[in-house]
Amino acid sequence: AWGVLEQRVGNLTAARRLFRSSLNINSQSYVTWMTWASLEEQQGNAVRAEEIRNLYFQQ
């Protein structure tokens, strides 16, 4: 949730860091993986978004 709040106010570096930190605690969190992928897609990083989705499904 904190990562989403940072994203909403434009702190993308902080949002990405928080998504990574969250996944260090719970790497199985589908919501976190897909929310991070969505952030990347919204920023025009379609390739990175796909990489993030693939990382989730490769677990």
What does this structure look like?
The protein is mainly alpha-helical and 59 residues long. It contains four helices and no strands. Helix 1 (2-8) runs antiparallel to helix 2 (12-25), helix 2 (12-25) runs antiparallel to helix 3 and helix 3 (30-42) packs antiparallel against helix 4. The longest helix is centred in the first third of the chain and has 14 residues, at 12-25. The N and C termini lie far apart (23 Å). The mean pLDDT is 97. One of its GO terms (molecular function) is mRNA binding.
Kindly state the percentage of residues in helix: over 70%
- The CATH class, by name, is Mainly Alpha
Q: How many domains, in number, for the residues? A: 1
- Count of distinct strands: 0
If helices are DSSP runs of H or I spanning 4 or more residues, what is the number of helices? 4
Amino- and carboxy-terminal Cα gap: 23 Å
CATH architecture type:
Alpha Horseshoe
Which stretches of 5+ consecutive residues score pLDDT under 50? none
CATH topology: Serine Threonine Protein Phosphatase 5, Tetratricopeptide repeat
Mean pLDDT: 97
Question: Which sheet architecture does the biggest sheet show?
Answer: none
Strand content: under 5%
From the spread of the alpha carbons, the general shape counts as flat
SSE series:
HHHH
Would you tell me the structural class of the helices and strands? mainly alpha
What Rg, in angstroms, do the CA atoms define?
A: 11 Å
GO biological process, one term: mRNA processing
InterPro entries: Mbb1-like, TPR-like_helical_dom_sf
GO molecular function: mRNA binding; single-stranded RNA binding
